[in-house]
Amino acid sequence: MTSRSHRRTSVSRRRRLVLATGVVLVAGALTVPAVNAATTEATATTPSTKRLHDDFNGDGYPDLAIGAPGTAVGGQAKAGAVSVLYGSSGGLSTSRKQALTWTNRGDQTGYGTALQSADLDGDGYADLLSSVSAYQEGIDQGYEVVVNWGGPKGLSAAPTRLAWAPYNEWNGQFTVADVDGDKRPDLVTKGDEDWSNDEPAAYRGDGTVWHGPFTRSGQPAKKDYFSIDPERLSIFHSLTAGDVNGDGIADLAVRTTSTEESDARAVALLTGGPGGFTHRGWLKDGQGRIVGGEDVVIGDVNKDGYGDIVVGHSNDGMDSDADLPTKGGALIVVHGGPDGVSTLRKPVWINQDTPGVPGAGERADGMGSALSIGDTNGDGYLDVATGLPGEDFDGISNAGTVLVLRGSANGLTATGVKSFSQNSSGVPGAAEKADLFGAETALVDGNGDKKDGLVVGDPAENANFGSVWVFSATSGGITAGGSFSFGSATMGLPATGAKFGASLAD
User: Fold this and answer.
1) How many angstroms separate the CA atoms of 51 and 62, rounded?
2) Which of 134, 199, 275, 355 is 20 to 30 A distant from 105 in Cα terms?
3) Are 84 and 77 a contacting pair, CB within 8 Å?
4) Do 502 and 459 contact (CB within 8 A), yes or no?
């Protein structure tokens, strides 16, 4: 099960219009600032004239940030850490790296969870956001979003707090995107409690928008509140942003479960705009059944100018799944259109029993976990990577696999699916029981060639030490040739229990 949720930002570079939650794309060579773990100085490369939303130091090459929220730092268990690989014309490399930790912060743990990036203060450099578990003295235990600021020398060593709410109101999931149309990224979280004065806390709504730009002290321009659906009492789980209706403003897909029904997973669509969100209803499949799942990404898989909503239905153990094609997990693609959901294209289910998809649907395979979206072959259609961390093969249970499905003029297709595991030719390592390979994925253009390579996170590898694999992309898509893997030790961080790779966001 993904730790982000996603998976792992703003309306994204090129045509992606996508936001998910986990490892983050960041860009660039830098002179690394002082941090609390080993770093290696990176040499500057030829900069691009266009800075990306994930460019920490402005050189135009996307980079990769990796969360290891279980890392022990300074005697504090599970303090957490972030590692960064910097892109260049040669792609991502462990020789161009940075490690960030955060000490002297009391009860705060899990730094490196739910990573995302955006230029919050409008200075032209992407900033790195993370969710952490945090205690507010005299109030409650909860979660907060913190940010490391980007600049010409890379990320600031110490994060700044942006938002906080108690456990009973928020699970730490958030997204960053321009939801009001002012061309500045906004932070969107679960409903917020106002602890700014001595008055009793007042619950404001299902969600909160912290509007950009932010000051370096972490203050938003303003904040306001929104409801998911006033007619339906729901428990918030996560939210994903992307431009579904093609107006250049990010919309929200919000994962919930109903408080009124025992199994009522659902995804609400809210379109953004200057006047706030408009509730467009609950996503449904071609038979009119409400669609729920554990992960969501948004991107234009058929290149029609509208972001499509891909829902990962990885938990196939619910009674309501009996009538759905979700054995072993599945994806459902709900196509975007000018009013939110397309009236011309029907939603499409894809699982391992779909002709062309490798393997067979077996209970608890987990297809639909750890979704990521990007163009892996440079054809302009966005492709989707999904983990199957519970996949069994060669007599090995829960070894794990990753599939990459291609986008096309007809939408997401089972034709030409790529499959990778630790037993695939050219992939480092060897599959073992309970590895859960594919628990996280990201699609990253590390060399700026407009083709996204694949990154796989496996926080369960080597007794929860964790590892990450990096695959290149060619005109034929993802290739195992030249792939490499590494863990916390390579980044100069403690390895035991680190869960390295538990958070990847694209």
Assistant:
1) 9
2) 199
3) no
4) yes
Are 134 and 113 in contact, with CB atoms under 8 Å apart? no
Q: Which backbone phi and psi does 238 adopt, to 5 degrees?
A: -165, 170
Task: Note the pLDDT tens digit of each residue in 406-447.
Answer: 999 999 999 999 999 999 999 999 999 999 999 999 999 999
Kindly list the distances between the CA atom of residue 147 and the CA atoms of 119, 130, 312, 459, in Å, as whole numbers in the listed order.
10, 6, 28, 23
Distance CA 105, CA 108 (A): 6
Name the amino acid, one letter, at 143. Answer: Y
Radius of gyration, alpha carbons of the chain: 21
Q: pTM of this prediction?
A: 0.89
Cα dist from 86 to 30, 31, 96, 115, 290, whole Å: 8, 11, 5, 16, 41
- How far apart are alpha carbons 19 and 298 in whole angstroms? 6
The alpha carbon of 196 is separated from its chain's Cα centroid by a whole number of angstroms, namely 30
Token pair for 492: 């100069």
pLDDT greater than 60 at residue 30: no
Residue written as tokens 């590390």? 446
In 3D, which of 438, 286, 307, 415 has the Cα closest to residue 369? 438
Query: Around 87, how many Cα atoms within 13 Å sit in the side-chain half-sphere?
Result: 32
Q: pLDDT per residue over 132-154, tens digit each?
A: 987 655 556 678 899 999 888 88
Of 356, 418, 415, nearest to 386 by C-alpha is 418
Angle at 348 between CA 342 and CA 350, to 5 degrees: 150
By CB neighbour count within 10 A (0-12 exposed, 13-18 middle, 19+ buried), where does 480 fall? middle
Q: Indicate the Cα dihedral angle 436, 333, 259, 139, nearest 10°.
A: 60
Burial 427-461 (b: 16+ CB within 10 A, else e): bebebbeebbbbbbbbbbbbbbeebbbbbbbbbbb
What is the SS3 assignment for 490? helix
